[in-house]
Amino acid sequence: MVNRLSVPSGIEEFERALAECVTIAERAMPDSPMLSVALCAEGGLRTVARSHARAELLDGLQVAAGQGPVLDTIDSGRPVTARDLAAGSPWPRFTAEWPEIRAVHCEPLESEGALLGVLTLYSYRSAGFAGETRVAVGVTAAHIGLLFRTALDVARMREVAAQLKEALTTRAIIDQALGIVMAQRRCTAQQAFEVLRHVSQDRNVKLHQIAASIVEQVSGEPAQRSRFEEPPPRIER
């Protein structure tokens, strides 16, 4: 069974890079095929880059028909090629809608052993694809896998940075609430923290929100978060 990876839809840099990859690959292919990149997603196959609008329509047609080279590649995880669909097609519903499409090639996109999606070439010519085109397809597919790993690492770093920023901006409020609990209960900081943690769990409310409500009850004013300053951009000399 093919190990598929559901690609998040929020990695905008990755999708922009895919569009550039498709543009560059198209220029490197002498037989001028139409290109598309369709990625596996939670809601199904999603075309995120294409050289022509018709390529995206062809991807969608296969999903709607329930058959086609793109779907076969997703199911098998292997390349699928048809040199002359007019001479015979294993996907009659697909070719019946677009009889002018004569040749197709689907290249699986992989990252660390998992299937990301499919790079597809559509052509109006029945002779298949030139040798230079096949080389460009392989290079482009490998590059897309590398791009995804890089984009995913960046997205994870941003998520961690956002969590760290949230922790830093709420720490001052939690510290104030700890001081209040320590004074009221005459307990240690660790004991005061356990009090906040138990209240947070019992009420199913985040700890910093519990802390903010304590500070507001005592001070009569909403708790103020500490101001978090973004570091200035580094200037390369």
Plain-language structure description:
The protein is of the alpha+beta class and 237 residues long. It folds into two domains: 12-155, Beta-Lactamase, CATH 3.30.450; 161-219, Orthogonal Bundle (Arc Repressor Mutant, subunit A). It has seven helices and five strands, in the order H-E-E-H-H-E-H-E-E-H-H-H. Strands 2-1-5-4-3 form a five-stranded antiparallel β-sheet, sandwiched between helices. Helix 6 crosses helix 7 (207-219). The two termini are 52 Å apart. The model has no long low-confidence stretch (mean pLDDT 84).
- Report mean pLDDT, rounded to a whole number: 84
Strands across the major sheet, in which order?
A: 2-1-5-4-3
N-C termini distance: 52 Å
Q: Pairing-aware structural class of the strands and helices?
A: alpha+beta
**SSE string:** HEEHHEHEEHHH
Classified by CATH, the class of the largest domain is: Alpha Beta
CATH level-four homologous superfamily name of the largest domain: GAF domain
Helix percentage:
40-55%
CATH architecture of the largest domain: 2-Layer Sandwich
Strand runs, count: 5
From the 3D structure, determine the CATH topology of the largest domain: Beta-Lactamase
Our Rg estimate from Cα atoms comes to: 27 Å
Question: In a nutshell, what does this entry contain?
Answer:
The chain has 237 residues and is of the alpha+beta class. Helices cover 53% and strands 16% of the residues. The protein has helices spanning 12-27, 53-65, 69-76, 92-97, 131-185, 189-203, 207-219; strands at 34-41, 44-50, 80-82, 103-111, 114-123.
